[in-house]
Design goal:
With about 110 residues, this protein is of the alpha+beta class. It has one domain: Arc Repressor Mutant, subunit A. Strands 1-3-2 form a three-stranded antiparallel β-sheet. The longest helix has 16 residues. The termini are far apart. The C terminus is likely disordered.
């Protein structure tokens, strides 16, 4: 995976979200919680998540809401979600990179 630029990625994802009428505040909160974990894991290509940790960071209290919106982020093409049905194994996430704009030259 290419080197991740934190600011470019956030700017890119915010731009995508603003164009996508399907995205709600819950999607945004959940995505940002997962992004925070991805950053903590040094932008690994595929990384494990813990549902309780993500729900806490996203301020989501309902498991149903969490799963619904995580699956929608997957289906909308914002990340790849590999669910685990084993309580001892966490689910896995693969993020897409949204910071591909070219450098702007300063005058």
């Amino acid at each position: 995976m290419e080197k991740i630029n934190y600011i470019r990625h956030l700017n890119g994802i915010f731009e995508q979200f603003s164009k996508d009428q399907r995205i709600t505040v819950v999607h945004r909160s959940l995505y940002l919680a997962i992004f925070e974990i991805w950053n903590r894991k040094f932008f690994q290509e595929v990384f494990m998540i813990n549902r309780q940790q993500v729900m806490g960071l996203a301020k989501i209290r309902s498991r149903t809401t969490y799963h619904k919106h995580l699956n929608e982020l997957h289906n909308f093409g914002y990340l790849i979600y590999f669910p685990s049905h084993d309580i001892l194994k966490g689910s896995k996430i693969r993020m897409y990179y949204f910071g591909k704009e070219l450098d702007q030259e300063m005058n």
